[in-house]
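Now for today's protein:

——
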Amino acid sequence: MSSNIFELNDVSYAYAGKFPALDGVNLVVRPGEKVAIIGANGTGKSTLLHLLDGLVFPDHGDVLAFGEPLREVSLCEVEAAHRFRRRVGLVFQNADIQLFCPSVREDIAFGPLQLGVDEEEVLHRLDAVAGILAIGHLLDRVPHQLSIGEKRRVAIASVLAIDPEVYLFDEPTAGLDPSTVRQVIDFILKANKRGKTIITATHDLHIAGEIADTVHVFGRNRRIERSGTPESVLSDTAFLEKHNLVHSHQHRHDGSSHTHTHRPTELHG
């Protein structure tokens, strides 16, 4: 049996069977690895995470999770589904998808309770994750009344309470202020130091170098165009520009002009 966390072999997927999202993807994720999936919007990053989380299944090709085929029929069995859900947790880009209970406290407790964790242990985990993510003051709040950053931390807490081996993050810093971005990055790094495997889909190149050992770049063809260390990939400006991850911008100063590149999240006047 393979020791890899995930293996994808020639995986393709199309929504409703006719809207291509992934096309011939090959990928290996090893235990304890930090992986960044980068690419412009519409290149399949979120779909890949949904596939790794067993929310969708390939039309073609094979997905192995923990050395075993990840198939819809196997996750229809309650025990097998619970076993997989204890090991893999997804933090959605839109936290409102993840938060649906009347209070933050109930949202955090929901996952472990559904997976059969003892109520006393759930309470212990609830207190622990509230402390780690500094959301103790939010526990009795209604989730939809929280700020974007608060919702993101609660969504992370709901996954942390399950204590999975693998964290999947979909654009975890999108729309957040710099302080909250730093908190999210620190959480990712600390989780990895505890042995967790981290897979992050993002188009924010500013964080990719910090949260990844390996970067995979998805192109408009919805497959991986390049893989490598953050240093080797992020330093290739021509490649990034070709794949719409940086863009050229022209400025005029004192009658002369110059052109330089900006990453998508950079601001300029």
Summary: The chain is about 35% helix and 25% strand. The first helix runs from residue 45 to 52. The two ends are 55 Å apart (CA to CA). Confidence is low (pLDDT under 50) at residues 262-269.
